[in-house]
Amino acid sequence: MTRIYREERFRTPLEVERALGLWVDRIGAVRGVSDRPEHYRVLGQFAAVAVERGEGALDVVGAPSTRAEAGDVILLFPDMAMRYRPDRDWDIRWVVWNGPQALAAQRAGYIAETHAVVRGAAPVVRQAFDCLAPLMVREDRVAALERLVTVLEMIREFNVALAAASPPHTAVRLAIEGLARDPARRLSIGDLARAARMTPAYFRRLFAAATGTTPKAFQLAKRINRAKEMLASGRSIKETAEGLGFSDVFHFMRVFKKLTNQTAGRYAGYHRR
Prior knowledge:
Elements: E1 4-6, H1 15-20, E2 23-33, E3 40-42, E4 46-53, E5 55-60, E6 66-69, E7 73-76, E8 81-86, E9 90-98, H2 100-107, E10 117-118, H3 122-132, H4 141-165, H5 170-181, H6 189-196, H7 200-211, H8 215-232, H9 237-243, H10 249-260, H11 264-271
Parallel strand pairs: 1-3
Antiparallel strand pairs: 2-9, 3-8, 4-7, 4-9, 5-6, 5-8, 7-10
Helix pairs in contact: 3-4, 6-7
């Protein structure tokens, strides 16, 4: 029977950190670790564990083990029942963080359990650790903001490393560029998938992995961006709706308000002043 325990000792964030939505719980580093935990644990927070020497594995309940070697980073998630262990011994360094903004980054796909080991990203954690070390003893507003920025920069660098390791499929990249260049051109998932010689489901997955959204939502956002440009240049609402291929003016106005939280008329009126 798999035994799992939940960690419950968390740092209490400052009020300003709660307002910012992200805080660092702790940082740490150890050398020569040879412990191989028998039990799994649920951390309850996010963590990046850099393997600086040695190699080992990340075990997640219900999933195959993932290998990690010197230079890699193991990402841990709040609800993940896991254990990470060296083959013999290793040197590791970690940053632990939490908060609603951290959860939002996970929901947006910037960190994901499907990419729980980021190859070659250990220097990113080391840099974040060095930035955070003098900040962890400070409890002022500026330090709280700097800690947040440091963690977000670390997450950004993880995404740079992942993108370099798995760049978007050429057909998907061309589709993204085409939709951005000509948002008025209405293409279905089927059209895009056929052009890429993929099934619609597979194309949709690759597109979402590259952009964080669906082709339909991506195209709609680009059409509304173009609509803003047209309205700001003096085009009428009717001209704009027709020029971007909306079925009718009322449909365009509903979509515009939904995506911008203001009416097309108000937006146009503001730019005519």
